[in-house]
Amino acid sequence: MTMLPKSLDSKLKSLQSDNSSGEFILADAKDADMAFGLSSCGERRPQQSDEPAYRSLQEYEAIIRQIVDQGLVDIMLMSARTADRLARREGLFANSAMTPAVRMNDSTDIWLAGKDYSYANEPSLPFSTASIAHAKTGVVDSADNSHASVDLGLYSITLNHDVARDRASLLAYREFRHEAERAGFRHFLEVFPPNAPSDLKPADYAPFIADSIVRLLAGVAEAESPQFLKIPYLGPRLTAALCEFDQTIVVGIMGGASGTTHDAFHLLAEARKSGVRAALFGRKINGAEDQLAFIQHLRQVADGEIAAREAVRSYHAVLASNGIEPKVALEDDLQLTAASQGLGESGVSKDTASYSSATAVASSTAR
């Protein structure tokens, strides 16, 4: 399948040669069905008493089509099932500059079925439901990779300062990298905060993540390297240090917990100041009153075209003009909460960029 040139490819090339080029990679995460159950696709709004509370997968896919048509994000991250339907069978991305991507592993800390998320209380164990072969071509054995519809995946690891479990996670990542290199399959690396650390204090999470990333990547050859990183915002000092350590590595942030609209835009603006050049927002986009308008303003903040507070005011103005009732009043939505801070350098905010609501790191599920 012949595809249009992708904005991701041109931006990566530009950033890897000059991190100050001004390019910014923006991604939407529509892979929540890899973690949650029936609530994966988000709540219907406005809610009608005679219908299910949550969107169906088909409604979820309809929103993905709208976002692809809008063309403002560079990557659409999906589950293998959704990507198989939209990217392979439907060919949704063939005439789009957007790059489809698949979540390639679902380690145990994102197993969030049920009410108490009991799996997420246990230290992360590596596991992958999806396979590279199926992500690329839809079948386990394909003699013709020229028909691949997806060539990019997200791989995530969660390190807990537990030598045996962390070794198992790193070994699984090594196996994935080697398989991906053989298959001509690219990936970006997500590093979650510890979900059940054995002996780390909250104030140690951010430096532990930064040091672990540097140590991990030191053993990775260029041919198997991640295209970019997706990590919690570590605060201005540590984030800047990580971005400056090797400027050929594009550092991206995850969107964080559900909070105010100002939380989302402020987090993005602050990360950009620290040298971050990519961001993946999932829950914040999917929970927005108007996803297209929210993405429009994310793009403007990411590109430095508008300040965070002004973006909030502009977003509410769009809601009003579209006849959409906001979840909270403008003045309340202009507030900043802990959700805007990511992993602080003197401690950990209550709402951080972790899937789990049952860990020492987070009290609400987030991306």
TrEMBL record:
Biased composition (Low complexity): 352-367
Region spans: Disordered: 343-367
Domain of life the protein comes from: Bacteria
InterPro entries linked: Aldolase_TIM
Database matches in SUPFAM superfamilies: Aldolase (SSF51569)
Name of the protein described by the UniProt record: Uncharacterized protein
Species, as recorded: Aeoliella straminimaris
